[in-house]
Amino acid sequence: MTTPAGSQIRDSVLELIGETPLVRLSRLEPDLRTPLVAKVEFLNPGGSIKDRVAAAMIEAAERDGLLAPGGTLVEPTSGNTGLGLAMAAALRGYRVIAVMPDKMSREKIDTLRAFGAEVVVCPTAVDPDSPQSYYRVADRLTDEIDGAFQPNQYFNRANPEAHYSSTGPELWAQSGGRVTHLVVAVGTGGTISGVGRYLKEQSSAIEVIGADPEGSIYSGGPVHPYRVEGIGEDFWPGSLDREVVDRYVTVSDRDSFNAARRLVAREGLFAGGSTGTAIWASLIVARELDDPDALIATIIPDGGRPYVSKVFNDAWMREHGYLGDAVGQTVGELLGGRAKPAPILTVSSHDEVGRALELMRAHGVSQVPVVSAEDEHAFVGTVSERGLLWASADHPGILGEPVTEVLEPPLAELSVGDSADDAVRLLRDGARAVIVVDDGHPLGVLTAVDLVEALNR
Q: Is residue 310 flagged as an active site residue?
């Protein structure tokens, strides 16, 4: 069928990518003097900004002869790029294998499969060079499958170029050339590099700020796992132009998720946790500027529906300590407020196992910290009743042996001034108890029972 002249009928869903609106955010903080606007990328047909990148990478691969008809696309992805590739592949006859880290939401996995993609899930908490990491699994599958091509958004120049040629010009035109600051949550680096480069070519005075989750490599802190999906990294992607980014603002999981919840509650914009990261960083920059003549632009990379079971689920938020203050006290206050404060019980590393068992029996506790015989303030491990059971089953007569024969890892430590929420998270994540210290001196032990009492007071 030939499309009639003047018709607004599009030939395919791919023609709906781009030209997303720019919206003023005036209700997040009514007293904020610096104006803030957001480009709403979840209105792309696949639901995220990655539609732009996916289409551009496929077109570049076809043009360069890297992707043959009927070929297979293999991509390490947090979900959105995989979805964009699957959407385009459904029209162009390609097979898609999305290789994802296991922290991604169930909704993302199910949506990818709905588009016909195959999903391979890999562990998150491994080194990027580990054979188990989703990057290396994607490499292996690409090598093993005939006709496979890995677009690899982390090192594909079509990624930032898609934003340089589309997202950046759209944002500049929609703002009337008024943007003074750009705040972007950084994942592969393609968005901030492409949009930032275009905007700086229009005005060299524009400041480009990366919003980075705590635990990511970009902002320079210690690298560790975090729960925000789709942004941050533990390596430096080739898609990121580090010269374009003027500075980074680090944002916690807690602040990211609560900012996303505030955005939908106050602005009616239902977006994901990475948007919350960008929003929180934008608010920090806006407060620093306090300038009604500035204009901060940020980008909403995807919608909130893929995160309903997490960010927008009160039970999940409470379980992980993100919804309000679980206790509202410091661990020192919590320790001092117990009905029967007890002195901390320890055994020396030179003591016999029988001594630890006597203490557990006499005081009704299930574990005893072990301190160094040379320094009573240095915790070297723990003896637990469960560990004693296994040791006794294997080696009857163990009670006369030194406690170092049954030593388990030491208990977690928190300072008296740390939030009791930190104790909740440690115990929820598997810690048996928490030692409270003041300037290195142990004051007592908090158990799950102590936290249960505090939460229900």
A: no
The helix or strand, by DSSP H or E, that contains position 18, with its residue range, turns out to be: none
Classify residue 404 by burial, with Cβ atoms within 10 Å: 0-12, 13-18, 19+.
Answer: middle
Secondary structure element (H or E) that encloses residue 209, with its range: strand 207-213
Beta-sheet strand order (sheet of 379-384): 347-348, 367-371, 379-384
- The pLDDT of residue 156 is 96
Mean of the per-residue pLDDT values of the chain: 89
CATH 3.40.50.1100 fits 13-47+157-319, yes or no: yes
Separation in Å, CA 223 to CA 102, 127, 128, 232, 289: 18, 11, 12, 10, 29
> Residue 411, exposed/middle/buried by CB under 10 A (0-12, 13-18, 19+)?
buried
pLDDT value for 61 = 95
The CATH architecture assigned to 331-455 reads Roll (3.10)
Q: What is the DSSP letter of 437?
A: E
Range 266-293 average pLDDT: 96
Is a pLDDT exceeding 70 seen at residue 406? yes
- Residues 394, 397: Cα–Cα separation, whole Å: 10
Q: What fold does the segment set 53-149 form as a domain?
A: Rossmann fold (3.40.50)
pLDDT tens, position by position, 231-272:
999 899 999 999 999 999 999 999 999 999 999 999 999 999
Global pTM reads: 0.71
Same fold: 13-47+157-319 with 53-149: yes
Please name which of 241, 89, 50, 51 lies closest in space to residue 155, comparing C-alpha atoms. Answer: 241
pLDDT of the residue at 341: 43
Structural tokens at position 95: 């097979």
Annotated catalytic residue within 50, 108, 200, 310: 50
In tens, the pLDDT along 131-186 reads 899 989 999 999 999 999 999 999 999 999 999 999 999 999 999 999 999 999 99
> Where exactly are the structural domains of the chain?
13-47+157-319, 53-149, 331-455
Residues in CB range of 246: below 8 A, 6 or more apart: 207, 208, 209
Instruction: Identify the bridge partners of residue 209 per DSSP, sorted by sequence position.
Output: 183, 247
Q: Is 147 left (phi over 0), alpha (psi -120 to 50) or beta?
A: left
